[in-house]
């Protein structure tokens, strides 16, 4: 921006030219945004639009994620990786395997490279501070602080190495080349071509119904699910939300917006439950080799905290699940057209 002063001094002499200060513009993290799919778009065309959008989100956050100044960039990059991996999984049977399988393998590698770094960010920033406060005064807490920070730094280094690696660059180039050169159909069978040439709205209904059925089947025993099973349910809900959001422009209406809202809420509650379990596991593992009164008090405190969180989150989970089940029938109520909202 321009200085307010009329002159600026340079080398001891007044300079009548205005002084220019260059302010670096920081681009905020790029979040997922469902693309606008045209009515009547084909299955393969919808895939390419959604995939290009998610790949663009990945690349837009990459440089800032490498610098590591704001963990939100890594978070949004990981979200894009997860969504793109889920999208490819939905198409794995309708696209030729040589076209889609290598992309899934690379996305799995990238998810595993970024996951520990993001998990460490969440733990250090969001989970550990309130948990630490709830544990009260204890001389071992400082030791745990140091341990978590060192682990966070180590995981961040591994994530940055993956993002600057040749494998990552090859993955992006090959994915972009496929999108530009349109080689997804090479080697496709007549049956696959028939599906890919069909209407994306029909394909989207099948995908969402299949993922909805998986969520419902797991949720029938909701009160009996252990921590690992609840985490598996959370993953199914996440994939359902991704698919519903990706194709949301084909099914506009209040019922769809309600479904996405309640899916997001359900995912948040299950995420909080998983965070509590992970925090308990991390603290107890860190204390496994420690003896003495301080370690005993800390084990008891974290156990009480976990039980209290479980009671609270159990109530929230039941409320969120019932709200979701009331909203998850929008496809059953939809008409055969693309719009299909009958909630008015």
Give a structural overview:
With 344 residues, the protein is mostly helical. The chain folds into 2 domains: 33-187, CHAD domain (Alpha solenoid); 219-330. It has 11 helices and 2 strands; from the N terminus they run E-E-H-H-H-H-H-H-H-H-H-H-H. It has helices at residues 43-67, 71-90, 97-134, 141-163, 166-181, 190-196, 200-219, 227-246, 254-286, 293-327, 330-333; strands at residues 8-10, 13-15. It has a two-stranded antiparallel ribbon with strand order 1-2. Helix 1 packs across helix 4 (141-163) and helix 1 packs antiparallel against helix 5. The radius of gyration is 25 Å and the shape is globular. Residues 1-14 and 335-344 have low confidence and may be disordered.
Helices and strands in order, then pairings?
Elements: E1 8-10, E2 13-15, H1 43-67, H2 71-90, H3 97-134, H4 141-163, H5 166-181, H6 190-196, H7 200-219, H8 227-246, H9 254-286, H10 293-327, H11 330-333
Helix pairs in contact: 1-2, 1-4, 1-5, 1-7, 2-3, 3-4, 3-5, 7-8, 8-9, 9-10
Give a quick rundown of the structure:
By secondary structure, the chain is an all-alpha fold. The chain is 70% helix and 2% strand.
